[in-house]
From TrEMBL:
It is an enzyme of class 2 (transferase). This is Probable bifunctional tRNA threonylcarbamoyladenosine biosynthesis protein. The keyword Kinase applies. PROSITE patterns: GLYCOPROTEASE. It holds the Pfam family TsaD. It comes from Halorussus gelatinilyticus. ATP binds at E343, V344, K345, G346, A347, E348, A349, T350, V351, K360.
Amino acid sequence: MRVLGIEGTAWAASAAVYDDAADAADATDSIFIETDAYQPDSGGIHPREAAEHMSDAIPKVVETALDAADGPIDAVAFSRGPGLGPCLRTVGTAARALAQTLDVPLVGVNHMVAHLEIGRQQSGFDSPVCLNASGANAHVLGYRNGRYRVLGETMDTGVGNAIDKFTRHLGWSHPGGPKVEAAAEDGEYTELPYVVKGMDFSFSGIMSAAKDAYDDGAAVEDVCYALQENVFAMLTEVAERALSLTGNDELVLGGGVGQNDRLREMLREMCDQRGADFYAPDPRFLRDNAGMIAVLGAEMVRASDTLAVEESAVNPNFRPDEVPVSWRSDSESVAVWRDEENEVKGAEATVEIGDERVTKRRLPKSYRHPELDARLRRDRTVLEARLTSEARRAGVPTPVVYDVDPESGLLVFERVGEADLREGLTAERVREVARHLAAIHGAGFVHGDPTTRNVRVGPDRTYLIDFGLGYNTDDAEDYAMDCHVFGQSLAGTADDADALRETFEETYAGVGDGAVLDRLREVEGRGRYQ
Ligand SMILES: C[C@@H](O)[C@H](NC(=O)OP(=O)(O)OC[C@H]1O[C@@H](n2cnc3c(N)ncnc32)[C@H](O)[C@@H]1O)C(=O)O
Ligand SMILES: Nc1ncnc2c1ncn2[C@@H]1O[C@H](COP(=O)(O)OP(=O)(O)OP(=O)(O)O)[C@@H](O)[C@H]1O
Ligand SMILES: [Fe+2]
């Protein structure tokens, strides 16, 4: 089968021809891609100008791709969203017209799913955790029960857009990512904020701190260096959290920011350190390109997942978890179960499980800058000891803390429960978690990472553990984030996640502050693609 792919969500007017009859191993290698990039004269991407670029450039790149094809086209696949509305509509119109002229099926591809599927297919991995680091997005996903589940994502802007906004502040031309990478080569570390909430994260704090540092006279190469160190360490940390939560040991990278060497180096290092496999596609498949659209398009055609022209409207806010994944089997899953062992490699720490005590060590992470690493390990160890005890005083079962040494990142706890919640999920236990979270919120702090792995279950008690990302706060937004993180972890590990989420919210509504659930709706409904 020969599929013509068309991409035009923002800056890349791109067309590709993918022939899956070629030898499977090099079918994607040999793919023909023709791209004409839109380059704004000043500032960032202007949607209208970008759409004008699409109407000029798409017919040309399509013609070049068709000339390169050595046979008839069997289907036309196009990026249906997410992306800039004016661009998507221009490209959608071109794709429909082509499918009709060629009299072949039309396929509507989700651009973010295409970013991750290209890596999955090239890597040959089974059901990896996927990190998408692109301009307008940043999220960690895994396939489960017919959908790609968002395990964690940015709470504000996409990662590339965040970097590009910083470089606009410096007066540098678009795109800023490669320029920051080049400038960082001569830089030294300077402290900037670092914000991870469970598997979610946000960039707004770090970006304004970076602008302030520059305005206050810090050397631009130092700010670029620290920006890369913190932002990419955040992405690497959440990818590791997703591996740990799901028990998976395969990671693939997608998206334009994935072209950054330092990001790839950190991810590879993290995977090496925990014994996981890592795959990143070549840069031409990381940045926006029609090759990935054609490859996923071919999968979708094989699954008869094509579109009637009258139902092929584009969707600027098309989320990856909205896509019914027709081309993968329901039995595949990102979540892998392993038996409990005496030594557990969590995302952050190595945990040695004794008969009565567990010893948790936050060992240095070689992917992180040593200064950042030391700061995170020390602060989190102190917070974990303090909040574990504070939670108990608020009536929530937690392990007794026997010993703590912040400098070496060591904690010794009482051993509690018989299994992690993800292995013993019941509605009653989810209710317990809701009551526990409401109790600590009532006491003025958050857990910070309440996943189904950070809850231990026994015959008659449900314990919260791992308070290292917790902090004191009276902001309903922070409480809502706790609830959001727990809901996302259910999506990644539970079959009946929706029902359990409802159970959670009903219970929380009964015992906690109603304003928190209102805020949760707001957090979840917020348009994140800016
Ligand atoms: C919806 C769609 O239009 C959007 N596409 C997109 O963002 O283009 P993409 O090619 O995936 O990524 C572009 C971003 O990637 C950044 N980038 C490119 N090279 C980089 C590098 N070496 N280091 C850091 N960032 C880099 C650019 O600064 C820019 O923000 C998306 O996938 O979110
Ligand atoms: N006090 C405890 N009693 C029994 N088991 C524990 C205890 N503390 C930790 N564990 C076990 O070790 C695992 C990892 O611990 P913990 O979550 O504290 O480490 P982590 O590195 O922060 O993990 P992650 O960041 O992936 O959640 C837990 O999921 C649990 O199975
Ligand atoms: Fe993209």
